[in-house]
Amino acid sequence: MAGSGPAGGVLVVGSINRDVTVFARRLPGPGETLIGDRVVYGLGGKGANQAVAVARSGIPVRLLGSVGNDDNGRLLRELLVGYGVDVTLLQTTDDLPSGTAHITVETAGENAIIVVPGANATTAPRLIGRFAADLTAASVIVLQSEIPANSVLTALDLLQDASCGVVLNLAPVVELPNSALGRADVLVVNATEAGQVLGAPAPRDIREAKAAASALARVARAAVVTLGPIGAVITERGGETIHAAAPVPQHVTDTTGAGDALVGVLAAGLARGAGVVDAARAAVDAATMTVVSAGATPSYPVFAPATA
Ligand SMILES: Nc1ncnc2c1ncn2[C@@H]1O[C@H](COP(=O)(O)OP(=O)(O)O)[C@@H](O)[C@H]1O
Ligand SMILES: [Mg+2]
Fold it and tell me: Left (φ > 0), alpha (ψ -120 to 50) or beta: where does 118 sit?
């Protein structure tokens, strides 16, 4: 991939949230009050999670995003620095409180999440435009869509003629023109999102996911469709589609942020010069390592480097 190599590092553009994760026997129903077992506070948001996963892979990473001028914002900034993420492009806004995510995890590891974007809404096209030179100077850019869709579009447009690798994690799914999606070197979606992008039922098994990945790789240059405990399927346009099985974890405590670990480790692999398939295989293994402990970034170990 053009522009690869650790020189310019990875630039993640995306959301930053204060995660409040409650563990309970099961998810509450409407109108129900449950007593939870414990609570874990952490750094979250797809942008922050993916940036931390890159840092945990030993690759220099910067995060472009926004927090509020509040205690959560100051804490989030500190946590990012503690994880080794460069926060010089992180904005503090007076207009909205820091983003928060309110997560409930049941004993089986499944979760339900409400996200209040807050300050993340101020990661607007104008802010992206201001950092155009930083975007085009990075080796690999990582984007997701917990910031305004127009900001993702602005970033993709800015990168049209740049040599950086672009990893687009279309989560949540937002509508983008095919010309923009076509700038993605790797499009990463989970099974639900794959179905939404293609306007089809979510793939339920490896065979259906392979078909979905092939369809997505007609728009992006490569596609990764993640399948939870089954791992992921990976395809490069014109190449074969492979299944990377997830290792069997000793136990599943909390799958929050697993997909983000996958995206970050994938981007780190590409920045090291690994091919998409090798980088994605390593990313599947890394993502599964995170499901055995609680929280999103708090569950990320130091990831072994993907080799070029
Ligand atoms: N229950 C699980 N057991 C093992 N690995 C898992 C599990 N859930 C997620 N993973 C790992 O995390 C990756 C992403 O998970 P997935 O559920 O597909 O995405 P999301 O994070 O969007 O829910 C998978 O490809 C796999 O490597
Ligand atoms: Mg999952």
Answer: left
Query: For the segment 236-253, what is each residue's pLDDT rounded down to a tens digit?
Result: 998 999 999 999 999 988
d(CA 171, CA 121): 15
- Nearest to 226, CA basis, from 278, 170, 176: 170
Mean residue pLDDT across the chain: 94
Q: Is the pLDDT of residue 124 over 80?
A: yes
Helix (H, G, I), strand (E, B) or coil at 186: strand
CA of 49 to the centre of ligand 2 (A): 15
226 lines ligand 1 (CB under 6 A): yes
Choose which residue among 262, 266, 293 to substitute to test ligand 1 binding: the one with the highest number of ligand atoms within 8 A of its C-beta: 262
DSSP-assigned beta bridge partners for residue 188: 169, 224
Q: Are 135 and 14 in contact (CB under 8 A)?
A: no
Q: Is the pTM of this model over 0.90?
A: yes
Provide the residue type at 142 as one letter.
Answer: V
Phi, psi of 275 (to 5 degrees): -75, 165
